[in-house]
Write a structure and sequence with these properties.
This protein folds into 2 domains: about 70 residues, no CATH class; about 170 residues, Beta Barrel (Elongation Factor Tu (Ef-tu), domain 3), CATH 2.40.30. The chain has 7 helices and 13 strands. A hairpin with a 4-residue loop joins β9 and β10. α1 packs across α3. The radius of gyration is 27 Å and the shape is elongated.
Amino acid sequence: MSNDNSAATKAAQEAAEAAKYEAQQAAATEAVSGLSAAEARSAETGKYSSNGSSTKEYAYSQDAKNKEILQQLAKGTDTYDKTTMEISDYTYGRSTTRRPWTLTTVEMEANSEKPLEFYINPGSYTLENPLRQQIVQAKGGPVIHTFRDSRRGNTNLGFSTMRVSMQSGSIMPVPRFGGTKANTNVQYVTIPKGLDIFYKWLNIIQQDTLWYNPITESTEENYQILTINTLIFPFLRLYGFFTENANFGENSDNPTEIQSWEGNFLIYKSTPALTLDQVSDLAGHWNLQISSGNSLRSL
């Protein structure tokens, strides 16, 4: 009889502990948007954390940690709605000391539409510049024939292609809060900024390549305009189109970010130009932009 009572007591304790754990896990999941991508994966997939503690213990500690973070962010505000951008910057990977890359079109600019501003600037790019030349193997050695384009600044560069590797940051839902500082309950969520930018990028790259200009009453090229800010080019406007493959995907090993988000941007012209008649002006343009602080944390 005593063995039956002992077994029943043990079962009741295990059930109570399981219920407590489920409640803690639900709270930790609710706060998981405040974790880094690696921490979130560890908490969600049941793997062990780097210090050897179990996911169960990890979830408990992260629940308390994230409540503390949200309370700190709320200081000095009347409502949590005012801290939404602070929370996004803190937890979604965006640097606040950078000038965003932008993407728009000629038609959007003509209509005074706001350009797309990348929430996190692309992680890398490669500019491929084909040379307009032909090599002939002659008896005395290779002979290089160069074909300059007088209509494009007397350049012997062909149309360049920029391979851009973009990044979204975390695409976990953004928590929104209501009530007073004493109320830390999650009320609803909004779309992450990086994911929203990704959807807008998909829209822009599918716009028509021609548009009707009512001022000139003519059909013109509706170039996509990619403005980049880097240490090489503190301010460079590229006119062209995303072509060929627009790649992106997801990966269960890192589910909180868009994976392999890449595109090829075919460049028709740029400001400043990289052509022979203007390339000597690049150093002066660089000095002007750097002096005005236009390249901080560009990538």
